[in-house]
Structure formats: C-alpha cells, structure tokens
Specification:
The protein is an alpha/beta fold and 717 residues long. It contains 26 helices and 14 strands. Strand 3 and strand 4 (429-435) form a beta hairpin. Helix 18 (510-523) crosses helix 19. The longest helix has 53 residues, at 165-217. It starts with a helix and ends in a 20-residue tail after the last strand.
C-alpha cells in the first residue's frame, strides 16, 4: 500500500492542490504548504543551474504548470483567511509564515514595506518574467526552423557512414525532443506571466477588500486597517512572490542555456577565468576611483586589490594548465597498460584478424624513448615522475631557440633492455642509448675538483664526458668538492635534447613546414602569396630549412628566409647556392649563434686550398658538386684534422672560416671525416664582430688553378 502511494505521490499531490482551491485550510497546514512551496522553488532553481543541457530537465514545462497552480491554490487559501479572520485574530490570521514575511519586510513601517513589496512584484513581472517569455518564443521559433537542416545533416552523416542507424535514430529523437521542449516552454512561460499578474491582483484584493471589511463590518480605524491588512498583504504577497521569483529565474536559466558545455557553475568558472588581463584592468579601474572625493576608499582598495590578486591567480592557473595540457599531449605508452594483447596470447590472433589493427603496426613514430623497468617511475606521473614535464619544457625552449616545434615523444616500456637503460629512436630506428642509476647523481669533474669522491665511473651519454655516479648520501660532499651534479632525469633530457638537435633536420616534415608557412601568412601574407607555391614549393622550402637545421642555423626568422629566396630566384635551381644566400641574409642570427661577446675565434682556410676546391667544382643539371681526386682529399683532410686538433682544447666549438663560394663545398667535404665542425663564410658574419684567427689550414705548395662556378662571384654574390 505504501509502495503504491509513493509511486503515485505526484498524482495525489496534484489532486490535493486542486482541492485546496475550494476547501478551506487551517493555518498550520497553510504554513506547511508555504514552506514546501519555497523548498520546491529552491530545488528547481538549483537543478536548472547544474544541468548540462536543457533536455536533462525535460519535464520543466510540466513542473511550471504544477508549481503555478500550487501557488495560486495557496494564494486563494491565504486570501480567504485574511478576509475572514484578520479583523479578529490580527497578524496571525493566515499563519505564522505570512506574518513573519510581513514583519520582516515592513520593518515597523507599513508604507515603506508596501513600496518595497510593489518594487519586487514589478521587477519579477517586467524584468525576469517578460525576458524569459521573449527568450522562450525566440528559442522555440529557431529550434523549429533549424529542424530540417539538422535532419539533413543526420542523413548526410548516415549516408557517408560517419554514424550508424542506431546513432541516427538517437540524434533524430533528440532533435524532436528539443523541438517539443522549447515549444512547451513557449507556452509554459505564460503560466509564469499569469502568476505574476495574479500576485498583483491578489495584493490589491487583500488591501482594498480587507480595508472595506475591517472598517465597515468590524468598525476598525484606518490606522488599525493599515497595520493589519498592509502587513498581511505584504506577507501573503511575499510568500507567493519569492518562490515565483525563483521559478521565473529558473525559467530564464533554462531557456538561455545556449552554447554551453557544462553546468552553469562550470561555465561561469571557466569563462570568467579565461583572461587574467580583464581582472587586472578591472582592479586598477576600481583603485583609480579612490582619487574621487567621497568614495569609500577602504572598500575600493579591498575590492581593487582582490581583483588584481584574482587575476594573478588566474594567470598562474592558466600557466599550470598549459603545462598540464602539453604533458597530456605527450603520448605516454607503457606495455603493461596497452590495450593490445600480449605477444603469443590466444587473444592476439583475434586482435589481428581486424586488418585495421595490422595497419597500426606500420605507423612510425618520429621520436621514441624506451625504458627499462627500473626507470618507469621517472616517466609515470602518478609515481611523481617529471620526465614528460621536462620534455614539454625543452620543446618550448627548442622552439624559441631554433624556430622548430618537434613532435610528441612516444614513451614506452621495453622489457628486453637492461633495467637501468633507456634508448632513443628516430623514425623507428635506434640512434643512441644510455644507462642511469635512479638513486644516484651524475658527477662531472670540470677540472676544479681536488678531492675525489668515491663513485661508479661512467661516461656522460650526451657529450661522452668522463663522469661517475655518486650516491645521494655523498651529494653534499661531492658538491663541496667541486663536482657538477646532475640528477638522473636531467641526464636523460640532456641526452634527448642533443639527439633532437643533431637529428632535427630529419624530423622536420612537410606538414610542419606547411604549418609554419600558414602562421607566417597571418603576419606577412604578401611574401608568402608571392613565393609559395608559385615559385617555391613546400617541399623545396622544407629542403632549405632542413639544410639550415643540419648545420645548427635557427629557422625562426621565416620572413627573412622567404624574402631571401624571393630575391634570389635565379639561384633556386641550385639549392646549395640558394641556401648560401639564405645564410648570408641570416648573418645576424648566425653571428648571435656562434659569437661570444662580439668576438669570434676561428680557423681560416688557406687561399690555395680554396683555389683547389673551386677549380674542381663541376656543374650538372641538378646543380654543382665537388670532384676532387682521392689524394687531394686525403691531404686536405690531413692538414684540416691536424689544425683542428691543435685548437680543440682552446675553444669549445671549432669554427672554420672560408670565402663564401668555398664554404658549402668544404663543409660537405669535411663533415664526412670530421663531424661536428662548424664552417662559416665571411659574408655570414656581422660587421660588428671581431674575428680572431687562432689557426690556419695550409696545404703547402699544392693547389690547382681554376675558375669559379657559375652562380656566384668570389665574394659569393
């Protein structure tokens, strides 16, 4: 019996509401229903704030009808009690709730209290109710007008296979429900409007009729009538108007939820914390008002300062979210967490029966890092690992330094390698590996160490420097002794950074170049539209950029690179010559890259070697190339190696300076035998830099006369 009653409690509630219009109710029951009325209004208002879309509260139009009838029933019951009992029982004629409402608002002054009540009623009627009604009408019309287009979009997705029949049915049903909902809301808002009008009429009836009854039938004075009937009128009106105000606000909340992605609280928090600059400006504006006489300066100071602090907090939060989002973009993949079944399992055969899963095996990652199981906690963020965050920070640094954004680093477990090892792959192939001890620090002796600290001898993986692993309990001793201490994660990140710098020209793809060109087009569309793709293709530009990156030249100044190519169209057939012109246009970038304190220490190339190289440059349809005999190559490399070895301990980076026309050919020759050598030309050095020659590569009496290849003069012009 009780279960059946609970299942039909709302039907019983509606019947009770209708009966309450006719049957007189005692004051105790009136108080109970008035509190229920307020509670329902609060619940409905909160529900409209926490729903993510309107269809989550699809019964709202019916709720509006029920709550409106409920309030009207209570208004009729309270009016009956006011008109019949007020003259005899006083302010408690309609119950304690109404008396409390009246006393609280009127505050001992009947005229002021009644004026406040009138303002509340008019605000609800003219502002909230009228606005909700208008929005409902517009929403209903636009929803109905958009139905054919939405139906056609569903049919198009279904025909292309983007969705299934079941998904299409669900989407059609949702569109129909939205149309029905907003159509019902268009009518339901009339209930709210009518309820507001009835509140005004009821207040006038209570006031006028009550005054007549009190003075004519009971002989009350005008002052007594004012005290009693004004109080009861205001109390009865507020008892009905406050829930009506909440319901009207809830109606407006529902019909104005357009383009939202979450609950009202979520959307407000997200959209008000998108731009800290707004809070800064608002805070400074409020603080500026302190200069005006008469304003409460303490309040202005508190509010303005709070806004500026809030803006600072938003700025900090956005920076933290930027790092977290970039970290999430890193494709971290552990074998034990992969959805793919383990090798040799019975389910593997079923997994690869799907041909799409076989095609996944063909994907090649640009950059990969694989770890032994002892290093997994350095990668797993849940275990406090910071490797991914450090990769993100290095990506930002590398982009600022070199003008290139390298792709996400795929990280995974590799059970086949040493537990303390990691390896780095470029395009699926291993290029290097290293080994670290997670509970030790890598100690490097820079030449200042006098007292050696006991540890495990090793080689620093990035630069091949002798080092040793120092346990944590000896960290302070090693630091005092003069060692440079590096934590395990920094060792890996440094190694990765050197690999990326060395192989960045292999990583730069055509899609990356296209993205860079699109970004460039926003700031300088003229040079892009004139050059790409009519004169220079994306593929050609990619080759130019890769050649620059291969020699450590930043490509951040894309505008200068494109303008240089546009100015030297005649040389584009020979890409080596075209790159030389680009390098000369980037001389300030190159100078900043290699010079220190406006000084550049270099090894010069003897003119006879340059003449020998120039004389053996051959031309072809695809450009020019160097055709030296093996003996000459061997002799040039011998003297170059000898001179370079002399200065390796003097300067950290060996730079060979040549004439412009020789640079590209000598670089190609020397990099085969002495990798890591920087070769610059005179035209690539800014005039403000002082060049200091600390060596000269001389061939002796050899050297063949010859001319210059077409495309450049002796100065590379």
């Amino acid at each position: 019996m009780i279960k059946k009653l609970l299942n039909n409690i709302f039907a019983v509630f509606v019947i009770v509401i209708v009966l309450a219009i006719v049957i007189p109710l005692p004051t105790t029951l009136i108080d109970f229903f008035l509190i229920i009325n307020v509670s329902l209004a609060v619940i409905i208002l909160l529900m409209t704030m926490y729903i993510k879309e309107t269809l989550e509260f699809s019964i709202f139009p019916s709720i509006l009808l029920i709550t409106t009838v409920f309030r009207l029933a209570l208004t009729i019951s309270t009016t009956r009690l006011i008109l019949t009992n007020a003259a005899t029982t006083g302010e408690t004629a309609a119950g304690n709730v109404i008396a409390t409402y009246g006393n609280f608002v009127m505050g001992g002054n009947a005229v002021v209290g009644f004026i406040v009540f009138i303002i509340i009623v008019i605000t609800n009627f003219l502002v909230i109710t009228k606005g909700s009604e208008r929005v409902s009408e517009v929403a209903a019309r636009f929803t109905l007008d958009a139905m054919p287009g939405k139906q056609m979009a569903i049919d198009a997705d279904l025909n292309t296979g983007a969705i299934t029949d079941e998904e299409a049915k669900i989407r059609r049903s949702k569109i129909q429900r939205e149309a029905d909902f907003f159509g019902a809301m268009d009518g339901a808002t009339k209930f709210v409007k009518g309820d507001a009008i009835m509140s005004i009429i009821t207040a006038l009836v209570n006031l006028i009729a009550g005054g007549i009854i009190g003075m004519v039938m009971y002989g009350m004075t005008f002052g007594d009538v004012t005290d009693i009937y004004f109080l009861l009128t205001v109390g009865d009106g507020l008892a009905s108007m406050i829930p009506a105000l909440m319901i009207s606000t809830a109606t407006g909340m529902v019909v104005t939820r357009a383009g939202t992605e979450g609950s009202f609280n979520f959307d407000v928090r997200r959209q008000f914390t998108q731009n800290p600059t707004i809070m800064y400006i608002a805070g400074m504006t409020v603080l500026a008002l302190m200069a005006l006489p008469g304003f409460p300066r303490m309040i202005l100071f508190l509010i303005g300062t709070s806004l500026i602090i809030f803006g600072y907090m938003i700025s900090r939060m956005l920076k933290r979210q930027e790092i977290e989002n970039a970290v999430l973009a890193e494709q971290v993949e552990m074998d034990e967490m992969e959805a793919m079944p383990a090798n040799g399992s019975a389910s593997e055969e079923g997994y690869y029966r799907n041909i799409d899963n076989v095609f996944k095996l063909l994907n090649v990652e640009q950059i990969e890092m694989e770890f032994g199981y002892s290093l997994l906690h350095l990668v797993d963020e849940k275990s406090g690992g910071s490797t991914i965050e450090r990769v993100v920070l290095f990506r930002k640094q590398f982009a600022t330094e070199m003008g290139m954004v390298f792709p996400s680093v795929r990280m995974r477990n590799n059970p086949e390698i040493n537990p303390n090892q990691y390896l780095i792959k470029i395009k699926g192939e291993e290029v290097t590996r290293g080994e670290i001890l997670t509970d030790h620090y890598l100690a490097i002796d820079n030449g200042d160490v006098v007292n050696q600290v006991e540890g495990i001898d090793t080689i620093e993986p990035a630069f091949g420097i002798p080092a040793r692993w120092i346990s944590e309990d000896k960290k302070v001793v090693a630091d005092v002794a003069g060692y440079t201490l590096i934590d395990p994660v920094s060792v890996m990140i440094t190694h990765l950074s050197e690999v990326v710098r060395t192989h960045c020209h292999e990583i730069l793809s055509r899609q990356d170049v296209k993205t860079m060109v699109e970004n460039m087009k926003e700031s300088n569309p003229a040079v892009v539209e004139d050059l790409i793709p009519s004169i220079v293709s994306i593929g050609y530009l990619q080759k130019v950029l890769c050649m620059l990156l291969k020699e450590g030249i930043p490509i951040r100044d894309m505008e200068t690179i494109l303008e240089s190519l546009a100015e030297n169209v005649a040389s584009l057939k020979d890409i080596d010559i075209a790159v030389e012109y680009v390098r000369q246009a980037l001389k300030r970038t190159i100078t900043r890259r290699f010079a220190e304190a406006n000084s550049l220490r270099v090894i010069t190339l003897d003119p006879r070697i340059e003449d020998t190289i120039i004389a053996n440059v051959k031309k072809s349809d695809r450009g020019s190339y160097l055709a030296l005999d093996p003996d000459t190559i061997q002799e040039i490399m011998a003297v170059s190696t000898e001179e370079i070895n002399k200065v390796r301990d003097v300067i950290p980076q060996v730079i060979v300076l040549t004439s412009p026309i020789v640079r590209v050919y000598y670089k190609k020759l020397v990099e085969q035998f002495i990798p890591g050598i920087t070769v610059l030309s005179y035209n690539e050095i800014d005039s403000i830099v002082q060049i200091q020659s600390i060596g000269n590569i001389t061939l002796g009496n050899k050297g063949l006369p010859g001319g210059l290849p077409s495309g450049m003069d002796s100065q590379g012009q």
